[in-house]
Fold this protein.
Amino acid sequence: MNEPTGARQILMHGLAFMGAGLAWGLVVPHTPYPRLAMGAHIQLTGSGLLFLVAALLLLTVPHSVGRKSIAVMQLAAWLTWLMALSEVANSWWGTNQTLPIAASQAGATGGLPWQETVVKVAHMGAATALLVAWVLLIIGFVRQAPQTK
């Protein structure tokens, strides 16, 4: 896969995140923990913006971001889906270990151990991948872009 194709896939993730986040916003008031559902809504739309910006930069600004770095960004997008979907599920579960401030505000008393684990693992994986992907993106733009003739 070449860089433009990978960047377009990241763009599609961003658009899908935005669409899912906007649609999820309609469900927020109907969940047992609307404050946690609002967090999922913000996560989906915020992630959408993040991936849209990354993709637009990759598609329009000269850079030296390589295929492997773009693959890491694509992995980060998939892991971010898992994280966001765990937050959607958490709107019914009410876990409180990973997002204690939001859980406290929502009145969540905690989920089953497996639910707490799902939310925790999803957040840890996505957070790690997003940090690495964003560092690679920065490095790719700080480096001198290849000269085109």
